[in-house]
Design goal:
This protein is of the alpha/beta class. It has eight helices and eight strands. The longest helix is centred in the middle third of the chain and has 16 residues.
């Protein structure tokens, strides 16, 4: 089994879904300290005039004193209205505006509760269903695992992989430096790094901005084009 482990991001960029499409099982990593003002509660879309703007999920308890699993959305209904409002300028030119607009509403409506984890998992699930990507996931805080004390940043992945009997682990190339290959080799786990090249696309009257939320990608591209981009732009490199 090939495993991927990442924090629950809010409508993340396309490379995140490239990683999901590369693994058999996805672990929503929510058991460590919450970090405010990260991709977990915000992302970027095009600004109606120039550049980009944030779409943000306000939290009721944004603090480094809580775990990610404990973060709660201040008001789901208000946040949904805010996000939909910021997306409204796409209506004039983006060919897939209505589909994406409905997808965002469904993500909020299908969130099981007001936790940030639930909302972000619901959003990723809606996107994966729309794109035709298998999203087989488990939430880390719901696993019955006895984590070692004082575990370092690079120690979580090999420990979780071994506990879940995974034989391969895939991580974004940008996180390569935190891992010690021997931690995986001792457990007979193959370590891979995913490299994702920039996926460029036409944004009509707007200037293209790289690495925006998947929402922007879906506004301008069909699922078929996006999946084709994932296959062309993604490369897995085995650590040796």
């Amino acid at each position: 089994m090939r495993l991927g482990i990442m924090q629950p991001y809010f409508f993340p960029y396309l490379g995140h879904f490239s990683l999901i499409s590369s693994v058999d099982k996805w672990i929503v990593f929510d058991v460590t300290q919450y970090t405010p003002k990260t991709w977990m509660n915000r992302n970027r879309i095009l600004h109606p005039k120039t550049g980009w703007q944030y779409v943000t999920v306000p939290l009721a308890n944004s603090s480094i004193s809580i775990k990610t699993s404990e973060a709660r959305v201040l008001n789901l209904a208000d946040t949904k209205r805010s996000i939909i409002g910021k997306l409204s300028h796409y209506k004039k030119t983006a060919p897939y505006f209505h589909i994406v607009n409905r997808l965002v509403q469904q993500a909020f409506d299908n969130s099981l509760n007001d936790t940030l984890v639930s909302l972000n998992v619901s959003a990723m699930n809606e996107v994966c269903n729309y794109l035709g990507i298998t999203f087989s996931y488990q939430i880390c805080s719901e696993l019955d695992l006895d984590y070692p004390e004082n575990i370092g940043p690079g120690g979580w992945a090999p420990y979780i992989c071994e506990a879940l009997c995974a034989t391969e682990y895939v991580n974004p190339f940008s996180g390569k430096e935190i891992f010690d290959l021997s931690d995986f080799q001792e457990r007979n786990i193959s370590l891979y790094f995913a490299e994702f090249s920039e996926f460029k696309y036409d944004t009509s009257v707007y200037n293209y901005e790289p690495n925006l939320s998947i929402l922007d990608v879906m506004m301008w591209n069909s699922p078929e084009v996006i999946l084709g981009g994932l296959k062309l732009e993604t490369k897995l490199v085995k650590a040796t």
